Each structure stands twice: as structure tokens, then as C-alpha cells.
Amino acid sequence: MKNYAIEREKWSEFLKRIAQKENIYAPFMREKNIEYLHVNADNADSIEYHIAKPTSSVKIFFFPIKENVVKNALEKRQIIIGVPACDLASLNLMDKIFLDEDFLDPYYQKRREETILIGNDCYEITDSCHCTAYDIAPYPTKNYDINLASHEEKIYLSVNSEKGEKFFDSIKNGDFQEIDSLPDAIDMKRMKTAEKVKKQNKQLPELDSTRKLVLEDHEKVWKKFAKTCVSCGACSAICPTCHCFLLLDKENFEKIKNWDTCQYPSFEKVAAGEDPLRRLYDRLKNRYLCKFVHKPDMFGEIACTGCGRCIDACIGEINKNELIIELSNC
Amino acid sequence: MKNIYEPLKFKLDKVVEESPLIKTFFLTPDEDFTFKTGQFVEVTIDGTGEAPYTPSSSAWVKDKMEITIMKAGYVTEKMHKMKGGEILGIRGPFGRGYPIDKFYDNEILILGGGVGIAPLRCLILTMLEEEEKFKKIDICFGAKTPPDFIYKDWYKELGDHKRVNLLRSVDKADDSWDETEGLVTVLLDKVKTDFSKVMAVVCGPPIMMKFGTFRLLELGVKEENIYLSMEKNMSCGLGKCGHCAMGNYFVCKDGPVFTYAEIKDYPNIWI
Ligand code: SF4
Ligand code: SF4
Ligand code: FES
Questions:
Q1: Residues A137, A219: one domain?
Q2: For chain A: N or C, fewer Cβ within 10 A?
């Protein structure tokens, strides 16, 4: 892995320059939310680095809310800056689903190939962050092309993939200085963030025990937590590993691949009328079974990255971690 | 490369009414189309919707395909209004069908009811192409009333096959009926086969599949020798959209045919 250092100011200038011809997205503060927005010469100085997850997960760049999967042209290169480690971890599962060699999804594939992922370390966290509980470090360790760390007046880039290297070699200038390794201060910052996440999740069971807990009955707990669920599906929309969709039909045999979720009533209802998920608390539980049992069993991958978005997004204030802790106290 | 979301075009040659709610659609594909018996396809009505069906014609035929469809909602209603000449979209074939190789040299017992006879017709026609490879094929078919039986002209010819033993029942007989009256499971008592070795295939409404399976188990059929085709609310057929999830399976990709042994531990398999 090659590491580079650059002065913050120079980095900013550099970004403004490449933003003129490249299609770049990065997190920005908008109202109270952090959103990925298109980077241009005017906003490049206000990119939010090292904050905890943007409101939308990185999946929006590969699996948009709504997409014509018959007619749409396949898109060209995009560069995403500021992807947190939890979202990078989600790609293992998403890739296995959409890049399954039996049925390769050409749209997802093209986007994955044409995207440069620039991850970044989390130095700030939010109350809902719990990546470390599921063995994910709060700084990128996989699935990134380039990582961005920073300390004092410098930005540090670590080039991790061949794709990242090719890209970086094609755009870098003399302001980037190759260095042997990242400064120790960065390690310190990473450890500090990890400690913070661990500290706020002391009570949270680990993956193995969570799996066991959701497999048990505990109907009372599920019913209690489902009470305030309004089946809005927000938890799935913002989840980096919720992949469900519905194909909708348009004239000329076109298909729209539209996000869908098991949290909506009738998701599994068959033509004859039977619906295994007709009860609200079965739907709520289904999402947890999917994340902690079925997806790990089927794909050997983590399906909850501990990003905590579903906790932040729930208008019924259902807190996933409180639910799991309550199960563990049964 | 082929786009997994884009349907192939099939021409609708003609439509045959099987019963008041059920019609068979005769299709010709743009190019030869191959599938294995028990696999399903997604049928698109242009601009309206898509739904999964198992073809009812033989898997040996590549230039024609028949699909039998019950009216059960918006999309199928529109299909039932078609007369012939229309273009339909087909994606697939999808899923794991019947393991015909495992059926060779065995006694086969087929239990079907209602529109569940459609996919079984595909299986039976496919097996009869090499009839001598199966020791014996016992077939038990049921319908609510005599007019509810689909493929009315088929049974005479089917019963004439050397290795086929066909039994039929209706829940409610009328004057024209001289075969069995009662639920299709009563036919099982008339079957002479070695239940401990037989390969059983069940397809029909969920309640029939449930009681059919239980009766077969009572008769000594092994859990791993009972093949069920599961109905799920499939959308993509590709193991991606999640609609057909059943425990650790995507029914569209891992099924739709499962042995009872594979799925018996999941809750809600019969609904
Ligand atoms: S869950 Fe972890 S990796 Fe994700 S934003 Fe929070 S601290 Fe960063
Ligand atoms: S289930 Fe919740 S915490 Fe887990 S990955 Fe999805 S949104 Fe994040
Ligand atoms: S029908 Fe989409 S995953 Fe099975």
C-alpha cells in the first residue's frame, strides 16, 4: 500500500480542479443531516470529513431508489469521498447478491466497476454507532480504493487497490508527497474512536449471541417493540445491507427496479392471499432474522454493520440495540 | 451480455379455456427456449405486471411453450382477456426443478390438485418422453368438481400409458362422474407402491400440499423423497429482490422445488 501526504489547502485546491471534469460526491451538512452531494469548485471547502455515517448509505450509488433496468444507459465513472468503514463492510454482502455469477446485475456491476471509493476514518461518532460490536473497526480496513485520514494540517491518502492506484496515478500532482507509513497520531486517533464506540455499546451482545437471541421466541418483546412501528420502511431504506426491491412494469417491456422492504404489509403475500408476514411483529422480527441469521447463513457475510442508521431513522423510536439488549435480559 | 431484467418476446398463438377461472396460453418464442421441468418463468404483460408460472408443456419442446394460468388478480385478469396474437415477455427459466435423474429406475407417485396439475403436466409429459426409465408412475389428481379439472382431453391418453396408473377424485361429484368422490388424499389408499422407496411429488393448493404431505409421511414415504413446489410472491426470480425469502432460502433460486426434509423446520411453509 502506498501512502501520501498533502497539505489541507493544497488538497482543497486539487479537489476543486479535478471536480471540473470528474463526477465526485462527498458528505456535506445540509440542514441537520449529512448528505452525499456533488462536489464542485464552490463547495469543496465544506466537505465533512471523518464524521460518522452520512444519512444515506453508500448503497445509493450502486442501487438507486428507482432505476429503469432495461432502458437506462449504464453510467460513467463516479468518485465517492468519505465512505465510512461500516458502509464499506456492507459491500461484501451486496456484492454477493448483485454480482452473483448466475445472475449478474449489469447495472450494479457497471456502477461498482466505475466507482472509486475513497473511504475515511471516523474521528467523530454518533450515539447510534456500534460497528465495533460486530467486529468492524471505525476506519476502513477493506473494500476501499483509497483511504483518507488526517491529522493537524495534513491529509493522508492510502492507496489500497489496483483500481485506486491507476486512478490516483492519473490525477496526482507534485503536491502529494509519498511517505512510508501514516504518522502514529493517526493510529492513536483510530484507537480513540474505536474505544468510544466500544464504550457506548458495552451492554450490547456480540454477533453470535445476537443470532441466538433473535432465533428464540420472546414474542412479548417483539410485540412490545412493534407497537410503535408504522411500517414506513425507513429502517430498510437507510440500511446499507437491505437489498430488497420490486420490479415494476413500464410499457415496451421496460422494468423499474424499485426499493421495497419486508416491513411493508403484503411484501410476501401470494396470489392466493396467504401472507406469512401478515402480523406487524413478525415483520419487525423478520428484518432481524434476515440480518443476524439468514444472510450470514446464506452468504457467510455480516448483514448488520452496526451503522445505527435504523435507530436514527425510526419515527416509532424503535431502538434496535435496546431491543437486542432487552432480549438478552429475558 | 444478456440483461437479466429484460424479457424475451413470446407470441401468443392461442388461448384455451380449461375451466371457468383457468386458461392455457400457447406461446411461440422468438428463439428456442430451454428449461428444466419444475423450473419457472416470469411472464410479463407489457406495461402491466409480471408473475411467476411453471410451464405446463414438456421440457423437451423448445420452440413452443404452454402456460396454464388461473385468474387471481389484476395481471391475470388482463391475460385472461387475451385472444391470441399478443406479445408476452418471458424471463427465465429460474430455479431448481425436479431432479429427474434421481427419479430414474424408481417408482414415482404424483399427487396434484386444482391448478397444481399444470406444473405436474410438464413433469409427466417430460417423463413420458423416456417412459421406460421409470418403474411405474402413479398419478393421483383431484379437483373440486368435475368441470374444475383442467386438461379435460388429456386423461384418457395419459391413462393409456403402460407405466402410468391414473386415479382421479373430485371433492363433489355430479351425475357425469364415475370415478372417486372425496379429497385427493383418499386416492393414496388405492395406490400400490413401495412407500418406503417411492419418490413422491406434490403440487396444489397449500392446504392440499400440507395434508398430502402428512398422509404420505404416515404411509411411510421418506421426508427426503417428498418433492414440493412452493408458491411464493416472487418478483425478480434472481435471488436478489427478497420477495420469495423462506428462512435460509430464496425460493426462486434454491427452489421452487424442495424436499420436505429441506424445509420442514421453517415456520409457515404451508401458507
Ligand atoms: S458505525 Fe463505526 S464506522 Fe460507521 S460511522 Fe459510526 S463509527 Fe464510523
Ligand atoms: S440493521 Fe440498522 S444498524 Fe444494522 S446495518 Fe442496517 S441500518 Fe445499520
Ligand atoms: S423472487 Fe426475487 S429473490 Fe426470489
A1: no
A2: C
